[in-house]
Amino acid sequence: MSAPLFALRGIEAAYNGASVLHVPKLTIPRGSILGLAGHNGSGKSTLLKLLGFLLEPTAGVLEFEGRVVDRAAMRAGHLLRRRAVLLGQDTCLLKRSVAANVAYGLRLRGLPAPEALLAEALALVGLDYAEFGQRSWRQLSGGEARRVALAARLVLNPAALLLDEPTTGLDRASVQHVQRAVLAARKARGATLVIVSHDVEWLKSCSDTLLTLEDGRILG
Amino acid sequence: MEYFSEGFATALTLLLALDPETFSAVWATGVVTVLALAVSLLLGLPLGFALGHFRFPGRRGVRLFVDWMLSLPTVVIGLIVYAFLSSRGPLGEWGLLFTVPGMAIGLTLLGLPIIISMTATAVESTDTRLTQTLLSLGADRWQLLLATLSEARFAMALAAASAFGRIVSEIGIAMMVGGNIKWQTRTITTAIALETGKGEFATGIALGIVLMLVALVVNLLVNLLRGRSNGASVGRLA
To answer: Which of A163, A179, A180, B105 is the most exposed place for a label (fewest CB within 10 A)?
Structure first.
């Protein structure tokens, strides 16, 4: 049996010396969808940043793809972040066309970005490449921009896709596109998903496991 | 009013006839502005990026110093540069006083803080969200630096246009360090001051027209860039 994608033991995270997250044990199997619910400030986004290697734990052991992520591994953090890709609440689009935005992560990896691949990723989030591909970032609505940002991560085919409030502030149509794209990412590409959302009903319907956090601790 | 209309008509004649003295001042202004702006950009862009991007001890003090330099009166800058370049000054043996390179040094001190400050602000304003975005897409350190500079390109062009406008229209430094020598260090601004003082109103108006046209072009450019730079906030997701 293959190792889980993530294994956390005794993980602690702190901001300015104040503990904000305590996870005694958490395992995320490959290909699963983990939903994270909880109030604002409960530690959901912090946990997501830890899993996305944008934040180092202050204590504990974090394993990714069967290997312990230590200080040395974090020094080459971009290699880890290329496997576990985060779409955070603070994410923005680059001042480029939609196609260039979707292709950007591929270019960072030195990979080709053929039009067909970009079109496929955009189609997953319900955007037509012929209509949107050459459109400037400044011509997009908020919902379209978020879907482009999601497409820019789906195209990377990451081992883990970490989504922080992917549907917040979107209209009903955009929410449905995002939800469909999330399911397609798992079904077609076998990605492991960790989703933070206040939409508990959606999390219940799509997650294999749903955890609730409160004051930096997992309730169950 | 006749006084004005006569002056204006003579000014147009001077410009259309490509009057050598008038265009000597225009040429000197162009050379010294390009030199000062080039050095300001070469030094200011990396320094501004470092100031806006990195967190280091004393950063606030450096920022305060740069902002203070922005508000320094140009005659004071001229005085300091004059003291350094004069024959009794520490750089006197270089013989740069009353030369175009000497003026360029003084005007660089005027343009450099503008470039540093505006670049730092541009990088600071994009940094938090952009850094997270680039890191989450898998950028390494170099890719992060290059992409941040690329994303701040409109704001940096705005900084360059602002510095250009300030340098080209400066008079205090040009007068004190350049010495207003005819055919050599006489710029548009120093020539306007001199010619008007001599009663040569037409020459002053002719040069004033050139300077106003330059200012108009720079302002149009600044407005265009400001619009594009401000539009960056649209990039934020919902």
So the answer is: A180
- Output the pLDDT for position A188: 76
What integer is the mean pLDDT of A11-38? Answer: 93
Quick check: A1 pLDDT over 60? no
Q: What distance in Å separates the CA atoms of residue B28 and residue B187, rounded to the nearest whole number?
A: 6
Q: Determine the Cα–Cα distance for residues B198 and B203; give it in Å rounded to an integer.
A: 10
**Count of alpha carbons within 13 angstroms of residue B120, beta-carbon side:** 22
CB B140 within 8 A of CB A81: no
Q: Is B227 on the interface with A (CB under 8 A)?
A: no
Distance CA B218, CA B224 (A): 10
Using CB atoms, which residue from B138, B143, B232 is nearest to A95? B232
Q: What is the ipTM, given to two decimal places?
A: 0.91
- Residue A101, domain extent: 32-54+78-208
> Which residue is closest to A109 within chain B, CA to CA?
B138
For B186-212, the pLDDT digits (tens) are: 999 999 999 888 888 888 888 888 888
B18 touches chain A (CB under 8 A): no
Interface contact A81-B143, CB threshold 8 A: no
